[in-house]
Amino acid sequence: MHDLLQEMGWEIVREQSPDEPGKRSRLWSHDDINNVLKKNDGTDSIQGMVMELTKLQVAHWKPEAFSNLSQLGLLHIRNVDLPKGLTCLSNSLRLLKWTGYPLRSLPKLFEADKLIELNLCHSNVKQLWKGTKNFDKLKFIKLCHSQKIVETPDLTGVQNLETLDLEGCFHLVRIHQSLGFLKKLIVLNLKDCKSLKSLPSRIEMESLETLILSNCSKVKKIPEFVGNMERLLVLCLDETAIEELPVSIERLTGLVTLNLSNCRNLVCLPRTINKLKSVENLNLSGCLKLGKLLVSVCVCVWGGGGGGLF
């Protein structure tokens, strides 16, 4: 039934302009999209495009191929290479999902103040943008496994961001200080960012619930926690190079999971850690420099109740 309804919907859209796909409201045929963009035949009728390819395909689109698509709100592309580059995208975009995005940055003239989700996983992006961009509605940035990105952009103008996913960005070296003051950020995932050495000196994120730094093997110091951060539930610092935790960890009063496994340089825990009464899951396995007595104390403090040392 679902397939039948989908086919009926497609047919209705085709009938909008049988011979001129550039005048339809939505395009999902790979051939139609390729022809429209190659000839620059797009119009402001197009509101959505979906082109998911199983194998990489070289597209000989003109750099200004999207210039006429002023009402394009959804763009979902996968495995498309653009040897001629790209000079513009629609500023009406609300969802931009381009898996394997082939370029080093977003177009300079891209001012998408309606953009809600930016998903460029497995991309060639080196730097998203330069300077400050005012993306007031942007809530999700996903760049996981983008191997060429070396730094995060200035996020001062992205104050409504809720998720930043940079997992597996092996060559990420720098995090812009503005990241530490995103009041609405809920999830920050930096897992497997193996070249990352430092983080903002302090973070003040009152909405943050999940902070993942797993296997950031060059990170020696984590930020000071400032202000109200009682919503943080999960803190994963496993396989980092940290030597100690900040005294300000006491602010994480809602913390449930604290993973410090295989932190081989960790030599001590601050006294203030005993204020974390909500911890149910504490992992200290592989922390070779922590004394056995200290581990025993941790088991006594958190080992009872519903949680424990794992």
Describe this entry's structure for a reader.
Residues 1-15 and 304-310 have low confidence and may be disordered. This protein is an alpha/beta fold. The strands form two sheets. It has a 13-stranded parallel sheet. A two-stranded parallel sheet has the order 9-11. The longest helix has 13 residues, at 2-14. The N and C termini lie far apart (48 Å). It is elongated. It has helices spanning 2-14, 30-38, 292-302; strands at residues 26-27, 48-58, 74-81, 95-99, 117-119, 140-142, 163-165, 187-189, 202-203, 210-212, 224-225, 234-236, 257-259, 281-283, 308-309. It has a domain at 11-74.
Mean pLDDT: 87
Which strand order do you get reading across the main beta sheet? 1-2-3-4-5-6-7-8-10-12-13-14-15
Structural class comes to alpha/beta
Sheet with the most strands? 13 strands, parallel
Instruction: List the uncertain runs.
Output: 1-15, 304-310
The SSE order reads: HEHEEEEEEEEEEEEEHE
Rg over C-alpha atoms, rounded to the nearest angstrom? 23 Å
Beta-strand portion reads 15-25%
Large-scale geometry: elongated
Report the strand count: 15
Helix tally equals 3
What percentage of residues falls in helices of 4 or more residues? Answer: 10-25%
Distance between the termini: 48 Å
